[in-house]
Amino acid sequence: PPDVEQLGRASWTLLHSITATYPETPTPNEQNDVKQFMRLFGKLYPCWVCAEDFQSYMERNKVRAETRDRFGRWMCEAHNEVNRKLGKNEFDCNKWEERWRTGWKD
Ligand code: FAD
């Protein structure tokens, strides 16, 4: 099986990148697409302990996809849940877009 850390970094890159390219004002179909994608992602994620916890997190915290910002923040909070579980620092979700879409303004 793939290395859990390497798989994790690659997966978060994919997931946050999907939120970054998500429309600002998605149609109902586009909202359904990402909800289905996340449900299947949680089901198929190839780290079984991770997948189980992530699915239960999504049961308690339904995907929010009404706007790009809502979805980006939802993903950031989901990632923070895993950060907490692993004893890592939480990320400031006000900065999700700067990190994943527009780039840091240094
Ligand atoms: P990562 O956590 O991979 O983050 C990559 C980059 O994202 C960071 O460098 C930072 O710039 C940015 N970032 C950090 N936090 C946020 C945030 N909240 N919002 C936006 N950007 C952020 N590992 C386990 O050991 N056990 C598990 O149960 C587990 N479950 C996982 C569940 C899922 C759905 C995923 C995708 C991964 C899971 N992982 C799990 C892997 C774990 O989350 C990390 O990816 C891995 O430990 C590598 O961590 P990292 O410190 O390199 O950075």
UniProtKB/TrEMBL annotation:
Localization: Mitochondrion intermembrane space
Top-level taxon of origin: Eukaryota
Keywords: Disulfide bond, FAD, Flavoprotein, Mitochondrion, Oxidoreductase
Group of enzyme by EC: oxidoreductase
GO CC annotations on file: mitochondrial intermembrane space
Domain ERV/ALR sulfhydryl oxidase intervals: 1-100
Catalytic activity field: 2 R'C(R)SH + O2 = R'C(R)S-S(R)CR' + H2O2
Cofactor(s) the protein needs: FAD
Keyword DNA damage: no
Gene Ontology MF terms: flavin adenine dinucleotide binding; flavin-dependent sulfhydryl oxidase activity
EC number: 1.8.3.2
Protein name (database record): Sulfhydryl oxidase
Full-protein positions shown: 32 to 137 of 141
